[in-house]
Specification:
The protein is mainly α. Helices cover about 45% and strands about 5% of the residues. It has helices at about 10-20, 25, 35-45, 65-70, 75-85, 85-95, 95-105, 105-115, 125-130, 155-160, 170-175, 180-185, 215-225, 235-240, 245, 270-280, 280-290, 295-300, 305-315, 325-330, and strands at about 20, 145, 150-155, 165-170, 190-195, 210-215, 250, 255, 265, 270. A three-stranded antiparallel beta sheet has the order 3-2-7. The protein has a three-stranded antiparallel beta sheet with strand order 4-6-5. A two-stranded antiparallel ribbon has the order 1-10. Strand 8 (about 255) and strand 9 (about 265) form a beta hairpin. The longest helix has 12 residues, at about 35-45. The radius of gyration is 23 Å and the shape is globular. The two termini are about 45 Å apart. This is F-box domain-containing protein. It comes from Podospora pseudoanserina.
C-alpha cells in the first residue's frame, strides 16, 4: 500500500478532521464521576497553607536522599497514612515529583486501586511509570488503560482478548480446580473488589461478582505451592468466561509526555469506521477499535485510504464532512447523563 507524506502544518487539522476519541471505551471500565474527582483533587495536590511546626521524629535525621527513597517505596495505602501524620509529612509527600504527576494526571488509576482494595500492592512509582509511557505491555501499541491487578498499561483489544488479563470470581475459580475457597484466597495472591459500573459497550447491565482474582497469577502461585496439579488447571482453560469481568479490573489511564508536557488519551480513525461499514468483517472491526497516539495516528493516516478521502472531502480541513454516526457519537453510547456518563 502506498503512503502519502504529511505536511507538518496540516497535522493538527488532520487529527481534528479524521480522528475521534472513543469515549465509550473509557466508560465501560472502572471510572469515577467528574464531581467525585473534583472533591478530592484539590486536597490531593496541595499541602496546607500554613508552614509545618512539628517534625517527624528520628525520620528527620535521615539524609534527604534516603528520606525520599523511603517515601517513594511506601505502598500507596501507607503513603496516604503517612501523609496524614502532620503538616511536614504532607509537605514532603505532596512535593514528590512523581506524586505530583500521578495525583494530577493519573487520578483514575490512583482512585481505581484504592477502590479495588489493591492500593497496598503498589507504590506511587508503580503508577508513575505507566503514566509516562504510552505502550501496551502486551502488544506494544498505544495503551489507554491501566490493568489494576498489575498496575501495567494495556490497550482495549489486549484487555479483551489476551490470556494475561483473564479474571474469575474466587468461588468459580475454586470450584473449577477443586480447592476450598479459603485455601484459594490464602494462596492465590491479591483479590480485587469490584465497584459499580456499566462494563458493557452496548450499555447492557453486566452481572458483577463481589470479588475477582487474576487467573494467570493465581494459577502460578497455586502450582508453585503444590496446592494443585497441572491437570487441575484444565477446567480453567476450557471454562467460558464473562468478558465484562475483565473490564471490572481496568481503568482509563492517560499518558503524560515528559518531552513536551502533553497529556494523551488516544484517538481512533474515522476512516477505519468507514471501511468497516463498507466491507464488514472481524479484521476491519479490530482495525476500527484500535487507538493511537497523535504521532501514531499521523503515521496511520499516511496509509489509510478512507481517512485520506475524508481529509480530501474536507478540503484540507476548511469545510465540514459527512461522517459515520458512531464516530460522531464517539462510540456506541446514546443515553448519557448531564455529567457525560451513561445513565
Amino acid at each position: 500500500m502506498n503512503s502519502i507524506p504529511i505536511d507538518i502544518r496540516d497535522a493538527d487539522a488532520i487529527i481534528r478532521v479524521c480522528s475521534y476519541y472513543r469515549r465509550d471505551f473509557d466508560l465501560v471500565v472502572v471510572r469515577s464521576r467528574p464531581h467525585d474527582m473534583q472533591l478530592v483533587q484539590t486536597s490531593l495536590q496541595a499541602a496546607f497553607g500554613t508552614l509545618p511546626t512539628a517534625k517527624l521524629g528520628i525520620f528527620n535525621y535521615l539524609p534527604m536522599e534516603l528520606m525520599f527513597l523511603v517515601l517513594r517505596n511506601l505502598d500507596i495505602r501507607s503513603f496516604f497514612y503517612f501523609r496524614q501524620i502532620n503538616r511536614q509529612a504532607r509537605v514532603l509527600l505532596t512535593g514528590l515529583y512523581e506524586y505530583q504527576l500521578v495525583s494530577k494526571y493519573g487520578l483514575e488509576g490512583l482512585r481505581g486501586l484504592l477502590r479495588a482494595g489493591l492500593a497496598h500492592c503498589f507504590t506511587i512509582i508503580d503508577l508513575y511509570r505507566p503514566l509516562v509511557t504510552d505502550k501496551c505491555l502486551t502488544c506494544g501499541g498505544f495503551g489507554g488503560f491501566l490493568f489494576l491487578f498489575t498496575a501495567k498499561r494495556c490497550c482495549f483489544d489486549c484487555l479483551q482478548s489476551s490470556a494475561h488479563y483473564r479474571v474469575l470470581p474466587p468461588s468459580t475459580f475454586a470450584k473449577l480446580i477443586h480447592i476450598s475457597p479459603s485455601r484459594l484466597l490464602h494462596l492465590s495472591g491479591p483479590t480485587l473488589q469490584t465497584v459499580p459500573g456499566t462494563y458493557n459497550i452496548m450499555d447492557i447491565p453486566a452481572r458483577r461478582p463481589k470479588y475477582l482474582i487474576l487467573k494467570e497469577n493465581a494459577t502460578q502461585m497455586l502450582l508453585a505451592a503444590k496446592a494443585i496439579s497441572q491437570d487441575a488447571t484444565r477446567n480453567l482453560r476450557i471454562r467460558r468466561e464473562q468478558p465484562e469481568q475483565r473490564l471490572m479490573a481496568a481503568t482509563a489511564y492517560p499518558c503524560y509526555s515528559l518531552e513536551n508536557a502533553k497529556l494523551e488519551r488516544g484517538v481512533s480513525c474515522k476512516g477505519c469506521q468507514v471501511r468497516l461499514e463498507l466491507l464488514r468483517g472481524d479484521s476491519h472491526r479490530l482495525a476500527r477499535d484500535r487507538t493511537f497516539s497523535i504521532q501514531g495516528f499521523l503515521s496511520h493516516f499516511t496509509v489509510c485510504v478512507e481517512a485520506q478521502h475524508i481529509w480530501a472531502e474536507s478540503e484540507d480541513g476548511t469545510r465540514p464532512v459527512n461522517e459515520p454516526e458512531l464516530t460522531r457519537r464517539c462510540g456506541y453510547f446514546t443515553r448519557l447523563g448531564s455529567d457525560g456518563l451513561p445513565r
